[in-house]
Fold these 2 entries.
Entry 1:
Amino acid sequence: MPLIGSEKKEKKGEGGIKGVLYGMAVHGSVTAFLKTRMYMEHLFMLMTLGDMLGFPIIPPYYSLKLLPYVVPNIKAWKMRMFRERDFTDLITS
Amino acid sequence: MTGLLEYFEKNPETSVVIFAGKGGLGKTTCSAALSYYMATVQQRRVLCFSTDPQASLSDIFERDLFGKGEIEIVPNLFVVEIDADKRIKEYQEEVKRKILDMYKLDKLPEEVEEYIESASAEPAMYESATYDAMAELVARGEYDLYVFDMPPFGHGVRMVAMAEILAKWVDKITEAREEARKYEAVAATLRGKRVEEDELLKELLEIKKKMSFFTELLTDSRKTAFFMVLVPEKMAILDTERALEMFEALGIRMSGVVVNQVYPRELLDDPKTPEFLRNKVVSQQKYLEEIKEKFGKYIVAVIPAFDREPKGFEMLKLVSEHLMKSRIEL
């Protein structure tokens, strides 16, 4: 039993170092990439499902075909699109 | 002018034929007659497809075909009369089921349900569904010849224009999707994770493949023939002129003009011809002159007016003989 405990500890420690290194080295860029990725995902959704927000979209037929894949993103997307913006966004976002 | 047979001899690669024109002038009759001839005389495997919401192939073949899928009427001749409303309904259900399965849900989120309902009410939905059905049938490639009976001129030609717009739209969003993927891939690599496969991109590429195949086929004048059907009347002539302009703007070559419902000129020589009929023939002769002048080189066939409705195989055979080997000189 104690063996398992120490093993666990060791693993945790290793993960911790890895985490620190990751945080120091690339966390910033990963966040930036993911943010850009989110913007693009939202732009894409606007192009395909924009009519959900009132933007006319040409072929709704094919939008429906793509709809299932973006269902989990709809909430976040709508919130982002409808959010009020002011100068504090520059600091916080 | 020697009929459509000569056209097919000169253009042996033709695999899609589209009849367009104003409503009620005989597009459906021509589609049915051509299909019947090709299947029975030339033993080619033919699919006759009606995209007209007021389709009357059922009438001509004297059998209820509406929304019943591909039905073999005589050996080698298959007929489809698409029920676009039904197709949209089935499509909606398919999308809903997919979402429920993908996310293991019992019920659709309200906004998603609402969106599916409202998108399906869009008028463009109807055309897209029809177009998609056409593209799908042709992509399967199970027939030697596809004959499309287009809805009356206006949106018949627009359907081809829409194909190009659709193709461009899919191109653009595919590009946007691929761009977004790049960022995800970089982030995933930095985090030491694997990039998941993008199902959505796969779906998009699938749509794109289907669409570009069909659009390329439609704009390839060796493989696709567009025929306009008209009658010797002012309105029909005006419409055909407008269609010619639209075809040109879309970069499509019109393959020919079929003049339908022509009364025999010999009626004028018979003193017993009643005044009413005589006037009709005289008026037609005037417009036939105009047709000759305006579309001379395009005229491929002249079909006489019949004393009965073109229904049933016997009449179809008669019409197809005039359509394929035209004997009437203008």
Note: The first strand of chain B starts at residue 16 and ends at 20.
Entry 2:
Amino acid sequence: MSVRGLAGLAVFVAALLVPALGSRFYTFLANDVIIWALFATSLNLLVGYTGLVSFGHAAYFGVGAYVTGILMKKLAVPFVLAWPAAGVVGAACALVFGFFCVRLTRIYFAMLTLAFAQIVWAICFKWNELTGGEQGMPEIPYPDFGWIERIGASVPLLGGWRTAEYFYFLCTVLVAASLWALHRIVTSPFGRMLTTIRENAERAEFIGVNVQRYELAAFVLAGTFAGLAGGLFGIFNRGVFPDFAYWTKSSEVLIMTLLGGMGTFFGPSIGALVLILLNQQIVSYTEYWPLVLGTVLVVLLFGFPGGLAGAVGALSGRLLRRVRSA
Amino acid sequence: MPDASFVFAQSLSGLTAAMFLFLIASGLSLIFGVLRVLNFAHGTFYMLGAYLAFQAMLWLGPGPGRFWLAALGAALGIALLGGVVERVLFRHLYGKEELYQLLFTYALGLILSDAAKIFWGTQQKSVSRPPELAGSFSLFGATIPQYNLFIILLGPSIALAFWFVLQRTRAGRFIRAAALDRETLGALGVNVTALYTGVFMLASFLGGLGGALISPMRATTPGMDTEVIVEAFVVVVIGGLGSLWGTFLGAVVYGQVLSFGILFFPRFSIFAVFALMAAVLIIRPWGLLGRPLR
């Protein structure tokens, strides 16, 4: 196993140990982070790897959240089916929207993704019977952990955990599996081709690659994993609301991706971690979180275009060189 | 089928909304057309315009003509702010990737709108209608406030003035040339840097004016910037990014679709607007009256 693989495994194990710290609040924060990490990583497949700036990625997140929420709350479908359904419907939406989007370039691509996301938002906002409209859909049930909880209660070390903690474990495992799948995708020949398209779409076209088809495939995959992230988030949030698909959510996840560093696989996850922890720290001091966020963003864009991961990489590279030359 | 006077009143209210949107969207379109940056912070300039007008009214107190002074002052204030923002921050964005431009202008919007929250708090602020235009009159059986009529007339006047400046004056020729080829214009001895600042100030002025003029009609609240910027995007995309008359047409279409949508299909009016935006992008990405970008 490579060093990176080991590091990934270590992070996974560390994430599983968070509830053992004993603070419900830490578990809550960690759960928030891992779901957003998946959401941001799915966006990175488009923005970082394929070079497509989507300004409407919240659409698929919102769709996934509503699909899982409606299935579990209104139709009492078990989680094992309701969660994959979020991915399937997210993928279907991404296929339809992406079909049109990949035909456009640059700013027009961004605008069309935004338009589609706003359509999704408008539907969620107004279709009262299905989505609960403006009020959203509160009280999405947790998955049924019946037998696991019974076993857990009889094991000495695992006892005493609430459903929220079981759900956290489930999220950690599912997100880890999704991230592993995404990592396989970006390191596969298919993923390499996406990077080629990002670097020079014209040249990729010349060597016989159907660029639009690759872009559409990336779009659908990104939509799938965003849908899966949304499915988990609706349950975690104990409710699904139209603003999950609003454009400000799309910009939030873009900021996370950029903050962590788009060029790297784990950058967006780091971005999610840093942004959520920062938010949690700042809001305990001041209500002016957007002001802080905006300032951080401006500094980042001017000073560290590679994001945190890029900045750390550059810094460690410089230190290494200094150590070697000394 | 509702009666004719009601339909007429509804279309006029759509037209009023459209003219406000035109004021905002024309600035957005101008910045995109010349500076090639899609300015997310433009909605915040509009909101700040409304707040400044409110503040100016507090200082000036009620009285004839005070509102117009306040509105003009607010718009000029926003133009000044725009000038500073362009000089200090914006110019680093030219020629950068879209992602950086979008996120940077978004960040700028966050900072400015939170700054507004620090000054004016989160409570709604409202400005009373100017006494000169407080009345209303009836036309074809519909009651129309004078202020709305003023806005409906102001929109086309500004569009015409804008057109005149762009087509018939020296500065306008420079602006059009800068939109086509910045470097050549610079090589011909035009101070493009100053021109860009001027264009940005003009666009900010229009955004601020829109905000100041809407303050007697709608309460000024935090969050009005994120709402309006998406509406303005819809307008410029429908009409064509960078096209003056396209923006005007886009605003009119938007206003009518929304006001009649609310009348006939209340559930689908917002949906219809964004569906229209998507349809235009799919069929004619450069908008109804725009030209394809190079």
Note: The first helix of chain A runs from residue 3 to 17.
